[in-house]
Amino acid sequence: MIQYKDRIFWLQTQNTSYVLCVTKFNHLEHVYYGPKILEGQNIEALRFKNSAITGSCVNYDSSDDTYCLDTLCLEWSGTGRGDYRHSPLEIKMPDGSFVHDFIYKKHKIFRGSTKSDTLPNAYGMPEECTTLIITLEDESNQIELELYYTVFHDTDVITRRAVLNNDSTVCKLSQNEDSLVHRMCQNGDAPVGSVNQNQNKVVIRRFSSMMLDLPARNFVMTTFDGGWIKETHRHTKEVTYGMYVNSSTTGSSSNRHNPGFLLSEKGADQEHGFVYGFNLIYSGNHYGSVELSNLDIARVEIGINSHCFEWELKCGESFETPEAVMTFSNKGFNGASHHMHDFINEHIVRGNWKKKERPVLTNDWEAYFFDFNENKLLQLAKQAKKLGAELFVLDDGWFGNRNSDKSGLGDYQVNKKKLPDGIKGFADKIRKIGLEAGLWFEPEMVNKDSDLYRRHKDYAVELPGKKSTLGRNQLVLNLCKPEVQDYIVDSVSKILDEAGITYVKWDMNRHMSEIFSDTLANQGEFFHRYIIGLYSVLNRIFGTRPNILLESCSSGGNRFDLGMLCFSPQIWSSDDTDPIERLQIQEGLSYLYPLSAMGAHVSGTPHQQTLRRTPLSTRFNVSAFGCLGYELDLRKLSKVQKDEIKEQIEYYKKHRQLFQYGIFSRVETLKNNKVQWQCMSEDKSNIITGFFQTLAGAAEGYDLLRVYGLKESSFYTIETKPQSLYIERFGDLLKHIMPVELNPDGFILRTANKVYCLKDCVEKQEVQGAAFESGILLNNQYMGTGYNNQIRMLGDFGSSLYLIQENQRNQENKKNQENKKNQENKKNQDNQ
Ligand code: DGJ
Question: What is the pTM assigned to this prediction?
Answer without folding.
Answer: 0.95
